[in-house]
């Protein structure tokens, strides 16, 4: 079986260190906001080139905490792409705001900037680009489009840890950047986890306070908040995994370049990714997805769909976007197949995948 992802194998070299760290934390009974949490936040800021990091319980909360920190009027408009994970849109609705969708570019996972420009109104308060599949949205260009209007940019970086747009690092370009650290991400914990970055001092304090029940000091609750802290145990695991991120991102990149070069079948379309992409997913498109995935199954090759429904077609969200159509997002949903892109995928297995795809 060619696995889609093999986290256990990725972490083999650090497992003993992780076990020993966990033992020490258990002995110390230091489970909540222990020293590893701050240490991880500091290291994550260095990775992103941002001033501040605010860890939290998961990526969905990261987006919600970021939106809540802006104190926006109810029903303010937030623009996001029609193809992303449900959480990006759920966070907007849970924050009492109104999601406005834009399509992604043709054969790209990233939102179309012309489309974005057309959707900006007086009520727009936030743009929420998503660096989907590890490719990177041109945030500096979005800033130019906004032309000093008081509109915030919160980017969803859940699939782009360590990615770059030219020399600019993901996590340092927007007003607030949100990351999921779900186990299968390029940087993932052994359970739910998330982190937010910003260069804004007052937003940093607000978000640190909000994620800890409105408190920076025990029993002093200065505002209503949520309980969305990163566990000390997860922080210790992330601290061990963080130094491996760039190496594994480079390996993903090499596999992606090999697929780009060797998959040569006119029945399969490849997507465009930007240069600094970290290939959280490598997605191809097929007009006959059922037949092609049957062939992958027959050859014991795992695959995924990211995602089978665009935002406007999710059962929970349909009522917000009646009669709206986003044809490129719909194309990714109905024709996209994510290929194995585990950083340790062997050359032999890469060749097998390519051979099967080219024989289709
Ligand atoms: C683009 C995107 N946004 C948000 C999330 C939500 O993150 P989490 O599962 O950690 O809540 C994910 C992860 O699944 C994601 O891929």
What does this structure look like?
The chain is α/β, with parallel strands linked by helices and 360 residues long. It folds into 2 domains: 230 residues, Type I PLP-dependent aspartate aminotransferase-like (Major domain) (Aspartate Aminotransferase, domain 2, 3-Layer(aba) Sandwich); 114 residues, Aspartate Aminotransferase, domain 1 (Alpha-Beta Complex). 38% of the residues lie in helices and 15% in strands. It is built from 13 helices and 14 strands. It has a 7-stranded mixed beta sheet, sandwiched between helices. Strands 12-13-14 form a 3-stranded antiparallel beta sheet. Helix 2 packs antiparallel against helix 9, helix 3 packs parallel to helix 9 and helix 4 runs parallel beside helix 5. The chain starts with 6 loop residues before the first helix and ends with a helix. The mean pLDDT is 98. Bound molecules: pyridoxal-5'-phosphate.
Give descriptors for this structure.
about 350 residues, alpha/beta, Aspartate Aminotransferase, domain 1, 2 domains, 14 strands, globular, binds pyridoxal-5'-phosphate
Task: Write a concise synopsis of the structure shown.
By secondary structure, the chain is an alpha/beta fold. Helices cover 38% and strands 15% of the residues. The structure holds pyridoxal-5'-phosphate.
| N→C terminal distance | 19 Å
- What characterizes the major β-sheet? 7 strands, mixed
How many distinct folded domains? 2
CATH topology of the largest domain: Aspartate Aminotransferase, domain 2
Question: How large is the radius of gyration?
Answer: 20 Å
The CATH superfamily of the largest domain is: Type I PLP-dependent aspartate aminotransferase-like (Major domain)
Number of separate helices: 13
- Taken from the alpha-carbon principal axes, the silhouette is globular
Strands side by side in the biggest sheet: 1-9-8-5-4-2-3
Low-pLDDT segments: none
Q: Order of SSEs, N→C?
A: HHHEHEHEHEHEEEEEHEEHHEEHHEH
**How many strand segments?**
14
Query: Which molecules are bound besides the chains?
Result: pyridoxal-5'-phosphate
């Amino acid at each position: 079986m060619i696995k889609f992802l093999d986290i256990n194998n990725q972490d083999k070299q650090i497992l003993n260190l992780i076990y020993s760290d966990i033992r020490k934390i258990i002995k110390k009974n230091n489970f909540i906001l222990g020293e590893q949490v701050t240490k991880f936040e500091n290291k994550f800021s260095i990775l992103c080139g941002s001033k501040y990091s605010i860890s939290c319980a998961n990526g969905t909360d990261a987006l919600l905490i970021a939106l809540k920190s802006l104190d926006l009027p109810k029903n303010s408009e937030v623009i996001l792409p029609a193809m992303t994970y449900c959480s990006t849109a759920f966070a907007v609705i849970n924050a009492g705001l109104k999601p406005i969708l834009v399509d992604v570019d043709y054969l790209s996972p990233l939102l179309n900037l012309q489309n974005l420009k057309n959707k900006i109104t007086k009520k727009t308060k936030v743009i929420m680009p998503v660096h989907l599949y590890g490719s990177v949205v041109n945030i500096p260009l979005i800033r130019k489009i906004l032309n000093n209007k008081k509109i915030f940019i919160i980017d969803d970086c859940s699939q782009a840890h360590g990615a770059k747009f030219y020399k600019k690092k993901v996590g340092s370009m927007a007003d607030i950047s949100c990351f999921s650290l779900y186990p299968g991400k390029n940087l993932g914990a052994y359970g739910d986890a998330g982190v937010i970055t910003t260069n804004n001092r007052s937003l940093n304090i607000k978000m640190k306070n909000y994620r800890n029940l409105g408190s920076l000091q025990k029993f002093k609750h200065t505002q209503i908040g949520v309980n969305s802290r990163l566990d000390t145990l997860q922080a210790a695991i992330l601290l061990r995994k963080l130094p491996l991120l760039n190496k594994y991102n480079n390996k993903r990149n090499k596999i992606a370049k090999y697929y780009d070069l060797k998959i040569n079948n006119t029945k399969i379309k490849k997507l465009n990714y930007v240069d600094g992409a970290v290939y959280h997913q490598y997605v191809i498109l097929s007009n006959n997805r059922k037949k092609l995935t049957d062939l992958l199954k027959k050859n014991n090759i795992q695959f995924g769909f990211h995602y089978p429904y665009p935002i406007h077609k999710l059962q929970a969200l349909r009522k917000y976007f009646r009669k709206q159509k986003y044809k490129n997002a719909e194309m990714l949903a109905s024709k996209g197949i994510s290929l194995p892109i585990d950083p340790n995928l062997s050359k032999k297995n890469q060749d097998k995948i390519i051979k099967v795809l080219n024989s289709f």
